[in-house]
Amino acid sequence: MRVICKSFLVLALGWLSLFAGQEGSLQAADAPAKKYKALMLTQSAGFTHGSVRRPKAEGDAPQKLSASEIAMTQLGQQTGLFDVTCTQDAASDFTKENLSKYDMVIFYTTGNLPIADADKEYFLNDWLKQEGHAFIGFHSATDTFNNYKPYFDFVGGTFDGHPWGAGETVTIKIHDPEFPAMKPLGSELVVKDEIYQYKNYRPENVRVLMSLDMSKCKTKRPYMVPVSWVKEHGKGRLFYTNLGHNEGTWTNPTFLEHAHQGIRWALRLEEGNATPNPELQAKLQEEAKAAAEPAK
């Protein structure tokens, strides 16, 4: 069902302090020359996250939105940056004709979505490469089309498990503190949220903005685990953040400002270096390996 998110029913969410010791709020920015149009797809063809699960509509009552949809609606309204159309019907709404209405696509999705091959090819090979177009991936955008190489080559990687579960607190290193989406986060981030590890991941294709600090995580692995990255795609841009599993994340102002600034960068309203940084990632790989080795 498609929902135009210019007005919404507020969903009462319990507060979860996601960012230990962090305080944040949406930062005022100059009004954009235009109001952008976003298509937010939250369909689950695999696991359904609580953050995209819509409350069951009763009778003829309007369809309520999920936590992530409400958050993106509010973000667009409060910043004046964009209007969002929220949909969980990819077959009907994710088409070449419909994509022409939008500047930005947001995925919080799972599985093999029912998108026609021609529309997938248009999206990846044409729409995304057009000047000013933006792709925003939250959390399980990397657990989508896991066997479709053109997609995982584009998005940057494929879900390969989550040793760091939704209840585990982890420490994240910020590698590019001057990048717009990193500025709200400080020098490091302590969060309670589910963190993915990846396959089909190529360091030479993305610029990693933050990754797990294995020396400070209870669960350790001898490899680098990126948490957010960016890339240029033709004349379009991609911003991905692994955060967003827990519903409480979507009410946290620091996370929302992280998302806001990532969106501004992806829409070319802010500048930030998207040059891939494989050398840094190789160094992080060695640091993770050392942190995971038993003490002698």
TrEMBL record:
CDD domains for this protein: A4_beta-galactosidase_middle_domain (cd03143)
Domain of life: Bacteria
First and last residue of the signal peptide: 1-20
Protein name: Glycosyl hydrolase
Residue intervals of the WW domain: 229-253
InterPro entries: Class_I_gatase-like (IPR029062), ThuA-like (IPR029010), WW_dom (IPR001202)
Keywords per UniProt: Hydrolase, Signal
GO molecular function: hydrolase activity
Record carries keyword ATP-binding: no
UniProt KW Hydrolase keyword: yes
